[in-house]
Amino acid sequence: MLGKMRSCAITVLLALAVAAAGCVPMETCRVVFYGNAADASTKAGIGSVRISALEKSAYCLSGTSGDYEMPLISMKPGKITLVFEKDGYESVTKAVSVSLSGSIKVDATMFQGSAGRALVDFEFSIANDYTAGTYLGDYEIPAYPLSVAKGTVEAEAVVVYPGRGTSFTASAKALSSMKVEIKESDPRMGYLLVGLPAGEDAEAFSAELLNEPWVDYAEPDYVCFPLGGYDPADFLWPMQWGPRMVSMHRAWERGFFGDPSIIAVVDTGVYADHPDLSGRCLPLLNSINTDDTDNDGHGTHVAGTIGATLDNTVGIAGMNAGALILPVKALEKKGFITSGTMTSISRGIRLAADNGADVINMSIGWPLIFADFTFRLLKEALDYADSKGVALVAASGNDSSGTDLSMPAKYGKCFAVSAVGPFYFPPSYANTGPGTDIFGPGGGSGVQSVVSTVPYSKSEKGYARMSGTSMATPHISAIIGALMSYGMSAEEAKSALLASAQYIEGQEAGLANAYAALAGARGSKAIFWLCDDVGNPVTFAFRGSDGSRDVTVFGDALGHAWLCGWINLSGSDLPAHGDYFGITEVFIEPTGPVEPPSMLKLNFVEIGEAGALRIGSVPEVRESK
Length: 625
Prior knowledge:
Layout: H1 2-20, E1 29-39, E2 50-53, E3 58-61, E4 67-69, E5 73-75, E6 78-85, E7 92-98, E8 102-105, E9 108-110, E10 117-126, E11 158-162, H2 168-177, E12 182-186, E13 191-194, H3 202-209, E14 215-220, E15 223-226, H4 241-245, H5 248-253, E16 261-267, E17 285-286, H6 298-307, E18 323-329, E19 332-334, E20 337-341, H7 342-354, E21 359-362, E22 364-365, H8 376-387, E23 391-395, E24 415-420, E25 438-441, E26 450-453, E27 463-466, H9 469-485, H10 490-499, E28 510-511, H11 514-519, E29 526-531, E30 541-543, E31 550-555, E32 559-567, E33 580-588, E34 600-604, E35 621-623
Parallel strand pairs: 1-8, 1-9, 10-34, 16-18, 16-21, 17-18, 21-23, 23-24, 24-25, 25-28, 30-35
Antiparallel strand pairs: 1-4, 1-5, 2-3, 2-6, 6-7, 10-31, 11-13, 11-14, 12-13, 15-20, 15-22, 19-20, 26-27, 29-30, 29-32, 32-33, 33-34
Helix pairs in contact: 6-9, 7-8, 9-10
């Protein structure tokens, strides 16, 4: 019965997803929580467990098999608390993060009796294996200035959507009577692109067209801009702090190089004859002109970060050894300005989706003054790619905003990437507003920038430094591509990154950790306990969760102890090489739970380091309350 109920609920959710498959701040997520409550000892399901969603005053009871399904809940993106309660069992609390509409499985293992009082309340984070400020290098590589989405270039055309029942021929005739040039006509995408009447700007002409009975919608063709373990043998590897910061070298060390996947770079084109990109690029697709060169260098720089050949002794090491780059030229450089339009970007996104892209990297954006505009054509293209299972990864923008994001990153179906520099802090230029999903290495100035490939017309060395959320985004696209190459869907890959991200002080979103995501490290796989000075446990172990960094350890200990945290990725009985482990000293008071002086960081366990941890044994695991 519960299975049928869940099927019905999912059917409803899928219908709703047409309108709200992704939710961003100020939109509504529609969620159904379901799962199972089981006895920790017998593994049998527990009936009549009350499952409550505290913030919504919603609840349900589990069936005799322990299965449950809550009523449909509407909520803003954020955290919600589920509490599992039944007489004779310890209650279990699960903090769950919700960012998308859909069904979310939340299981609970429940223990009979009491685990004691709360001893330690703390937060934890999986930590990347990178020492801040290292591997910046001193080899002379030219640095390009930061690219910021500019608000000085006016739209030179208007996108017109004919109304239902109005043919494109009739629309063209009506536009001709207005003495305007029809630049493009695309019935498949449903629009005509028209020039401006003499003396009129795009905003005014769009408003004028909206009064025509045959027009469904009209908007300016907005102008878009570029936004600015394992030890490879590549010559410039010693100055590549970015892959180290997201623990990609640890992923390589453990064999996670990435199987074949296609990552589209919708940008200024890619110089595919670069020695570091030889054999890594598919034929270029062009959605803006007939010039297939990268006359700016931005797209080639992005492509190098994703897929420059690993271990070829030349230049840099790309993040994803299995990736094929699909160059899509949707921006061009004219004079001193590099830009594209809503039509060229939208067409490029559709081209990428139709040519097998698993991931579309968009290191591009519009000025923030356009962030709340309609962008109908762009959103339709993004929806189209999303419907084909493509992961959409977009730069948050370089406008120094803590309250907003650029389009397309602001659109809920895009994975919005902001930047950090080599000292783990977001640079002043990075947009970090609500809706930011994750951070990647974007760099600062000078040697703190990101080094990657560029055409030799831009640098005689074939390499240059750039900074920006543009540079952070391909790091994330490469990791998502690797995750998808191992069988994950786009949504599963993004969830894996979110669940394994490192905490950044003052930010809701975390910093990507490639190894943790690829190896399956999650908050829900972490366990925490107290031990004595010789490593013997003095409490049960309590499990963390993916949706919250908060954990409480219960027991009856007093006085001096050590708080331990472990994610077992090696399959060993004790912490071993390749696992994540953290330990800190605490003093347990008799009056109430204590808080450690700082967040407990779970660090990568090096070869030979495990023996020095002095952990005698690991206790039985119980669910965190």
